[in-house]
Amino acid sequence: MAAKFSELELAINTLVTEFHAASEDKSPALNLEQFQRLVTAQLPDMVKISGEDDGVSKLLQEMHVPEAGPVTFAEFWGLVDTLATTQFGLQKREKTAKCVKCLLL
Amino acid sequence: MAAKFSELELAINTLVTEFHAASEDKSPALNLEQFQRLVTAQLPDMVKISGEDDGVSKLLQEMHVPEAGPVTFAEFWGLVDTLATTQFGLQKREKTAKCVKCLLL
Q1: Where is the S100/CaBP-9k-type calcium binding subdomain domain (chains A, B) (predicted)?
Q2: Hey, is the C-beta of B17 within 8 angstroms of any chain A C-beta?
Q3: Domains assigned to chain A
């Protein structure tokens, strides 16, 4: 890879390396504890599970992952996909909202 | 959102904002020219299309996007998904390769 990476390539790389870093034992999937730690530490604003005892099980249900795990990269990516799509919707509304403001000025 | 974002949240946000930035006219999809500029500028290492005349049409075919575009965020995200999965495979091999080395030492 060229020495200088683009923002987008760095972002994709971060998503992959953070998942790898969460699985200390080199396994391609995360056990429940590793997954909970990853979500709590790395997605504190986008995924709210810290306050709830059954927070992780609800999240796994929404991700269609068996309650006992493990969580594969593809299943983790499904969560990232949902979060990105939500972000895209929020930013799209913000962009149109700004336009409404600029019409009113 | 809290003032301090995690690496993972910043990465997801970058993927969304770069797509939005590529569509100057506030539209939720990119025309061919905007998409080509995004890929050439932001994915120079992960997607090789610059040297080939029909590079973009081949890429769109692989992405199952009509030749005339436009490219929606969901279709862009399909490309990101493929790139991330490839990166994950590469890093997994690297990790196991390192282990083989540490076995040999």
Answers
A1: 8-48
A2: yes
A3: 7-104 (1.10.238.10)
